[in-house]
Design goal:
Blueprint lengths: L2 E5 L3 E3 L4 E8 L8 E6 L6 E6 L5 E3 L7 E6 L4 E6 L8 E7 L18 E6 L1
Parallel strand pairs: 2-10
Antiparallel strand pairs: 1-3, 3-8, 4-5, 4-9, 5-6, 7-8, 9-10
């Protein structure tokens, strides 16, 4: 069965950095599209960054130039490097695989994990 486990979230001050990790079992990041998503309290889950099988990455306008996603195929783990964090980045961050396009509704609902909390203070 597919299981995705997010980690690395923390409380940081504005301008700081974090690196999130997503460890996968039952599905390979090397063979599937993958993505990072986030959900702030009271808001819908939104796309942050995606990567397709060809290696093409797409970032939301809110994080372009600040966030970078990458993967380690040997570990079947992907990462989200988050720099110059802003208070509006505060959310629970999730990863997913096997979906397409940017919007969260196009990604497998059964694959969502518990997420990892990122809180950015001003």
């Amino acid at each position: 069965q597919v299981q995705l486990v997010e980690s690395g979230g923390d409380l940081v001050q504005a301008g700081g950095s974090l690196r999130l990790s997503c460890a996968a079992s039952g599905i390979s990041f090397n063979r599937n599209n993958a993505g990072w998503f986030r959900q702030a309290p009271g808001n819908a889950r939104e796309s942050v960054a995606t990567i397709d099988r060809s290696g093409r990455t797409t970032y939301s306008d809110a994080v372009k130039g600040r966030f970078t996603m990458s993967s380690d195929n040997a570990k079947n783990t992907m990462y989200l490097q988050m720099n110059t964090l802003k208070p509006e980045d505060t959310a629970v961050y999730y990863c997913n695989a096997g979906g397409h396009f940017m919007a969260a509704q196009y990604w497998p609902s059964a694959y969502w994990g518990q997420g990892t909390q990122v809180t950015v203070s001003s």
